[in-house]
Amino acid sequence: MTAKLIDGKAFAATVRAKVAAHVAQIKEENGITPGLAVVLVGEDPASQVYVRSKGKQTVEVGMNSYEHKLEADTSEADLLALIDRLNKDPDVHGILVQLPLPKHLDSDLVINSINPAKDVDGFHISNVGLLGTGQKSMVPCTPLGSLMMLRDYHGSLSGLNAVVIGRSNIVGKPMANLLLGDSCTVTIAHSRTKDLPSVVRQADIVVAAVGRPEMVTGDWIKPGATVIDVGINRIERDGKTALVGDCEFASCAEVAGAITPVPGGVGPMTIACLLANTLTACCRAHGLREPEGLTA
Ligand code: NAD
After folding, report:
1. Is the pLDDT of residue 1 over 90?
2. Over the stretch 178-232, which tens digit does the pLDDT of each residue have?
């Protein structure tokens, strides 16, 4: 391997330490404790793991964690009533509704019922619009974490060619907007893109957010490029379940200048950025100085 490894696990620990220090300061100076409410509907096993992990890390950085677990058959009216209460609760600075929701619930309606100032996932249509027009917003956690790692590695991203593979509302589109905000020349590639390898070969920065195990191989990568692998895919290998990204790590790492591993790359940054967003939301709500380097 010739590429530098971008260690998301270590980077996420530094983000959490910065958040914890800032939380301790506003607790002492202002008597305010940031609070994150996480709403889980149903018993999806993966979602339960995520919610537990979010709650644990929230408490570890000194913030209050409020978990609301609702039955799978909860009505839309009951869920909206809970969100309304959380919107009005001054102790709650961030609200996250764990996705996916059960099929009978309208995710767009639910997400858009969250007060945009408390929308720490950055999925509310107001935040999407603010980000798209280069205004201060709540920024989706996975793209924000990816941007932080890119800024840390490159310093300035200005003028670099970035190719984002994937056009989802959660990763691809906000990632492209963030890179545009940092003055990259951005291409969004997707399932209908013609000759994807040759598009990717133009990139100084490749962000892969596809959900296809090891789709991007080393021969797609321009020598020295930075590869951010957002994909998390479970595969069977040698009779065991393994986690792999959207990039074939070994071959990409032979050509790239820097690369994030899976696991231990973008994944840990996502929850760290959720904590950072909750702190940012709290500071904005109370007119306090925002933490430096933790927002776009
Ligand atoms: P999605 O299914 O919503 O979007 C996938 C995108 O990939 C689509 O826009 C589609 O056009 C594109 N695509 C599909 N097949 C393609 C192909 N053959 N060539 C080019 N593009 C293709 O997925 P998502 O929610 O954006 O997630 C993408 C991946 O990132 C998944 O593996 C997911 O698990 C992972 N993810 C990781 C984190 C994290 O914290 N690290 C967070 C969110 C998502």
Report:
1. no
2. 999 999 999 999 999 999 999 999 999 999 999 999 999 999 999 999 999 999 9
Residues 149, 108, 76, 102: is their CA dihedral positive or negative?
A: negative
Q: Are 46 and 234 in contact (CB under 8 A)?
A: no
Whether 135 is a known active-site residue: answer: no
286 CA to middle of ligand 1, Å?
Answer: 36
Nearest CA owner, ligand 1 atom 22: 191
- The yes or no reply on domain 33-117 and CATH 3.40.50.10860 is yes
Q: Say if residues 275 and 268 touch (Cβ distance below 8 Å).
A: no
What residue ranges of the chain are covered by domains with CATH 3.40.50.10860?
Answer: 33-117
* CA of 170 relative to ligand 1 center, distance in Å: 9
CA-closest residue to ligand 1 atom 4: 168
CB 71 within 8 Å of CB 105: no
Establish whether residue 270 lines the binding site of ligand 1, counting it when its CB lies within 6 angstroms of any ligand atom.
yes
Residue of 171, 215, 234 with the most ligand 1 atoms within 8 Å of its CB, for mutation? 171
Architecture of domain 141-268: 3-Layer(aba) Sandwich (3.40)
Task: Please tell me which residue, 46 or 70, carries the higher pLDDT value.
Answer: 70
Q: How many residues does the chain have?
A: 296
